[in-house]
Amino acid sequence: METSIAAPGPDDLLFAPEEPQAQRQPAGAEHTVAVNPWRILIVDDEPEVHAITRLALADLHLDGRPLQLTGAADAASARELLLRHPDTALILLDVVMEREHAGLELARWIREERGDRAIRIVLRTGQPGLAPEPRVMLDYDINDYRAKTELTAQRLVTTVIGALRSYRDIAIIDAQKAGLRRVIEATASLFERRSLEQLLSGLLTQLAGLFGPDQSAIFIQACGPLFGVDHGDPVIIAGTGEYSGAVGRAARDCLDAELLHDLELAIVRERPLHRPAYSLYAICRDDRSCAALYIETGGNRAAWEQDLLDLFCRNAAVALDNLRLHQRQRDLLAAFERFVPARLLGLLGDADVSRVRVGDHIQREVTVLFADLQRFTALAERLSPEATFGFLNDFYAAIIPAIAEHGGVVDKYLGDGLMALFPRAPQDAVAAALDLLERSRAFAAARPDLPLAPRLGVGVHTGPMILGVLGGADRLEFTAVSDSVNVAARVERLTRVFGVDLLISREVHDRLAPEHHQHARQLGQVELRGKGRLVEIFEVFAGDPASTRDDKAATKRPLAEVIQQMQLQRWPSARRGLAELRRRHPDDPVFGALDRHCERQLHLEAAAHDRSHP
Question: What is the dihedral of CA 318, 321, 322, 328, to 10 degrees?
Answer without folding.
Answer: 180
